[in-house]
Design a protein that fits this description.
three-stranded antiparallel sheet; P-loop_NTPase; about 30% helix; GTP-binding; globular
């Protein structure tokens, strides 16, 4: 072992005329730059952008520990202790933690977690299931095609012109895989032809409610199977667009009854269809009247106030709730307006531009539904509506009977412990536990 030379007789290292150009690591490089004493391959330092420099110091610092300066005359400062002179420069490859957190002295790469998640989800893709409910002739299929700028509705997938209105509500689902910017999404549009078109509309919402619960049941059975799939197909309805007729007066009793009965099972978003039939003043009065009637009936539409996570979400959602129900116009036809091709509806007095916020609120609905709240719609469906159904089902008979993939054996979930069975379960545990003699 070599003798230790006292610091006062050690030769000072030569100071480079200009510090080396050290920047953030290249995205293509899997390894971060090495500091002096770690890599041993020349003078290098962590990226300057990743090192906070406190006021009054000459180098990087981290709370609760010490900061190391680079160059001659820099100091090592200890929080709450003393400052000692230090000559030379030293790089640290680790971090020092304290009760208030830690600051990294070098680039580690934890910021790549987001990129890893993005690649993972890009491979698996996304599912989004949207249901449209309303009278015939309100433009449900046209609006869905306009939302996704593609022929994705039921009518676009083989609807015949001579098709008659069904005597009862029928559920028809059409799935498409749409891609944009390398992101693939399986979109399922669930249409409800025949809703509200009959003379007697008693309980016409029951087939819709049954379909929604059937998708929850299908997902639940897949979850409790002995051999579960790596990725359970998600057919649950994430969003229900309810189309309100542009009468300009008030909601019909059927509208109120439907939203009241299904608001606790699915995310309902009310929209005023064919808003170009109303003047701007009529539209604003109708929107206010609809909001007041929904509030008086105790109907909660998405986004619900109790689901706001923080003040920022509350502020954004309050603006959305004040603008709902959105008065929309749908069209899949293009017209030439001021030298630009726009989606719109041609009338005798001009062209109603679908994406023009001065003409209708379609752009607000699209941004809200797809660009800002699509993931939240899926999370609320899973964490709130599906969990409510799941808890109810598991409490009914003390559990489900999951079936294996081969459907050859059955396993009964253990019953829930209630007051009536508590003593029996405790007695069983006493006999099952091994006793030392």
């Amino acid at each position: 072992m070599s003798d230790i030379v006292p610091p006062e007789v050690r030769p000072k290292p030569a100071v480079p005329a200009k510090p080396p150009n050290v920047g953030a690591p290249s995205p293509s490089s899997p390894f971060p730059p090495q500091g002096l004493g770690v890599g041993g391959g020349g003078i290098s330092a962590p990226p300057p952008s990743s090192i906070p420099v406190p006021i009054g110091s000459h180098g990087p610092s981290h709370g609760g520990s010490h900061s190391v300066g680079h160059g001659i005359g820099h100091s090592v400062s200890h929080a709450g202790s003393h400052t000692a002179p230090h000559s030379g420069s030293h790089g640290h490859g680790g971090s020092h933690s304290s009760s208030g957190g830690s600051t990294l002295l070098g680039y580690i790469g934890i910021d790549t977690i987001i990129e890893q998640m993005r690649k993972k989800t890009m491979k698996t893709g996304f599912d989004f299931n949207i249901m449209v409910v309303g009278h015939s002739g309100l433009g449900k299929s046209t609006l869905v095609n306009t939302l996704f700028k593609s022929q994705v509705s039921r009518r676009s997938a083989g609807w015949a012109r001579d098709e008659k209105i069904p005597k009862t509500v029928e559920i028809k689902a059409v799935s498409h895989v749409i891609e944009e910017g390398g992101v693939k999404m399986k979109l399922t549009v669930v249409d409800t032809p025949g809703f509200g078109d009959q003379i007697n509309n008693d309980n016409c919402w029951e087939p819709i409610s049954k379909y929604i619960n059937e998708q929850y049941e299908k997902f639940l059975k897949e979850e409790v199977n002995i051999t579960r799939k790596k990725r359970i197909p998600d057919t649950r309805v994430h969003c229900c667009l309810y189309f309100i007729s542009p009468t300009g007066h008030s909601l019909r009793q059927l509208d109120t009854e439907f939203m009241k009965r299904l608001s606790h099972s699915v995310n309902i978003i009310p929209v005023i269809a064919k808003a170009d039939t109303l003047t701007i003043e009529e539209r604003q009065e109708f929107k206010q009247r609809v909001r007041k009637e929904l509030e008086m009936s105790g109907i909660e539409f998405y986004p619900q106030k109790e689901f706001d996570d923080d003040m920022e979400d509350k502020s954004d959602n309050d603006k959305i709730r004040e603008a709902m129900p959105f008065a929309v116009v749908g069209s899949d036809k293009e017209y030439q307006v001021n030298g630009k091709r726009v989606l719109g509806r041609k009338t005798a007095w001009g062209i109603v531009e679908v994406e023009n916020p001065n003409h209708c609120e379609f752009a607000q609905l699209r941004d809200f539904l797809i660009r800002s709240h699509l993931q939240d719609l899926k999370e609320v469906t899973h964490n709130i509506h599906y969990e409510t159904y799941r808890a109810k089902r598991l409490n009914e008979n003390g559990g489900l009977h999951p079936i294996s993939s081969a459907e050859t054996q059955e396993t009964v979930l253990p019953p829930l412990i209630t007051e009536s069975t508590k003593e029996t379960n405790e007695l069983s545990l006493i006999f099952l536990c091994p006793v030392e003699v």
